[in-house]
Amino acid sequence: MIAKVIVDIPSKSVDFTFDYLIPDQMQAMIQVGMRVIVPFGPRTVQGYIMSLTDQPDSDMDISKLKKIKEIQDIQPELTQELIQLTEWYNQYFVTKRISMLEAMLPSAIKAKYTKYFKIESFSEVPQQLQLKFNNEGLYPYKEAQSNNDLTAITPLLKQGVISEETKLTQNVSKKKQRAVRLIEGFDVDAVLGSLEKSPKQYDVYAYLIDEQHHTVTLKQLDEMSFSKSSIDTLIRKGFIEKYDAIIDRDPFETRVFEQDEKQVLTTEQQVAYDSIIETIESQQQRTFLLHGVTGSGKTEVYLQTIETVLNLGKQAMMLVPEIALTPQMVLRFKRRFGDDVAVLHSGLSKGERYDEWQKIRDGKASVSVGARSSVFAPFKNLGMIIIDEEHESSYKQEDYPRYHARDIAQWRSQYHHCPLILGSATPSLESFARAEKGVYELLALPSRVNQKILPEVDIVDMREELSSGNRSMFSKQLHQAIEEKLARQEQIVLFLNRRGYASFMLCRDCGHVPQCPNCDISLTYHKSTDQLKCHYCGYQATPSNQCPNCESDHIRQVGTGTQRVEELLQQTFPEARIIRMDVDTTSRKGAHEKLLEDFGEGKGDILLGTQMIAKGLDFPNITLVGVLNADTMLNLPDFRASERTFQLLTQVAGRAGRHEKEGKVIIQTYNPEHYAIKDVQANNFKEFYDKEMNYRKLGKYPPYFFLINFTISHKDMKKVMEASKHIHKILLQYLTDKSLVLGPSPAALSRINKEYRFQILIKYKQEPALVDALKYLDEYYHDLYVKDKLSLKIDINPQMLM
Ligand code: ADP
Ligand code: ZN
Ligand code: ZN
């Protein structure tokens, strides 16, 4: 037998399969999708088995083929489907197969680990073989291969007599924490009796009796304010002891979830539910656009359709924009489906992620909830895929391999003949246009559950505030509303657009702003570390007290970072308890969840935050949402600026008045007449959509045209210009005259990391020869990159044009 293997070398020149001979003793074990070690030239490298065959490629001499050295997996990590997907992506998106394979797999398997065979049932394993296993019942996989034991083990593995066990190296393995436990052998009542005179020790001991079957860490005891010295005394007396407890990696496992009861669907929800279920039962591919205002019960529809999918013995995949930002969503899923849910996201440690991945791979979890990359979850029998907040730009991976989760999900739903559901209160123009044309099926939930009215939205013209002498960042109206809500002990959410809140240094005398020496951008000032930083290349410097341009010492920090806004807010409302959420306060693992929990428990009056508070928040006591700067996003040089503004403001506004109490929204802006803001006030998506579609048509932008953005970069400006001209020429040769080729022109960020950047943008509707052009360019510039570091980035359907 021969294996076709893609080797793990990220180079275009070897990005196809090579044939290897499979040694006899591996034949029973080997499967498509496994990773293997193979000789490659003078080296030994890892590879992925793409297919198995009896026939070599040509009439070459099989005996001359090199042999596979070692198999690395006991179960294949990749499914047949994912391998096929790699091929498709390589064909149409000009992406290296090996890069896609790497993007699909959890990073833990790139880390150090050891795989073992593990005995599940000793009596069924032949004596001879048993001897090879250690007293924990483990036998290293590698050793089994070199001992030629695979042929004997494979059938036992299939019967479940032997299983697979993976041990990751220290830093990704199970976490250890110092804990305390009772020392056994004492009559606990007698001990308690002896402690009656020392109530603090008594409390600790009594608590440990109650919790005998649970792990009690020192940290927990400390958090519950048990006295440290009493613990030490009890240890000295020999009643209790410290030990290293292994804390399970499942971040949700120790929690008890209340069952979440399913709701009786409203008529509108029922219509949506029925259409989806019909598609699932008839095993068709269909894409639905579930357009429902915030709080209209979309999630309830997801949950109930998933339940039906599970009852049919199938699996469901749910994508969310950024899971750290939606802890409430995860909780709802856990409450409804318990251990059936695997949670995949970047906040987990490698080991945790791998555990979740394995649960899916081995069929132990039937539902996944995860961000972008979870679209590759190795389910084998999908009944449904859901993308919540489908308009979010985080579904596009901007780094190579660039992919959009929506495209991948569409392909997978076709593969599995199952529906794809795109949900949003503010669908992307692309998706809504497809729904209007009947490519997608539109399901609408136009009102909130239980007829709760959407909050009233007021727009405040900040130009008027200025001219009436109010120079603060809070308009009179917002100021008053905050005071009112504080007095009524209701909660307030204040949103600041991240982009408007960077701070930088400015010389008051000559206007000089320190720039990054490597990039075409000003440096951002970070107060916490007193450093100037470049957000593109990581350059850092300590700010000087003297202007490097005119030597004046009037160089100051300007602009208002979120921290500064918090200070101002506190000065204005001294009695308010403020919780600030931004990249600085949420960088620690779990911090985000903790802050939200605090706010939910009423430990704060005002939640002040950036983009990350726009989504998912659902607290009954929020009755006021204020948007401090609605404009910063409007002014971005991007054709999606209005769309993004409309989406973000609608999301933020949706945080208010979701329950019994009525909500109010105040938007501060310098562009009160802009349709993206007015239509938020009117809560009229369709109105916004129609106007925006008009602009897109005039400007020849998506969804009327497709875009591809080429970015050419190199340290030598002349080379960039030459290459740009060449690419331009090639594109004109390949493309019909119905397409537009714009540029070359300097990119909006014309220099990053000392490299000059030029762009070419093409707009097209249908281009039969496009893929050929892309392949040609990709290959041509791949060689140039290897030789000369001249880089060509091809971004198909770009989300950002910077
Ligand atoms: P969305 O996902 O559209 O924001 P949710 O599904 O979160 O909406 O629903 C909003 C609120 O209404 C939630 O608290 C949910 O439990 C509740 N809800 C949803 N559907 C129903 C229903 N049919 N009957 C009663 N309450 C419901
Ligand atoms: Zn100066
Ligand atoms: Zn820089």
TrEMBL record:
Entry cofactors: Zn(2+)
A Gene Ontology molecular function term of the record: hydrolase activity
Domain Helicase ATP-binding span(s) in chain numbering: 279-445
Residues of the Helicase C-terminal domain: 542-696
Residues noted as binding Zn(2+) 2 in the record, renumbered to the chain: 516, 519, 534, 537
Cited function: Initiates the restart of stalled replication forks, which reloads the replicative helicase on sites other than the origin of replication. Recognizes and binds to abandoned replication forks and remodels them to uncover a helicase loading site. Promotes assembly of the primosome at these replication forks.
HAMAP family associated with the record: PriA
Subunit organization: Component of the replication restart primosome.
UniProt protein name: Replication restart protein PriA
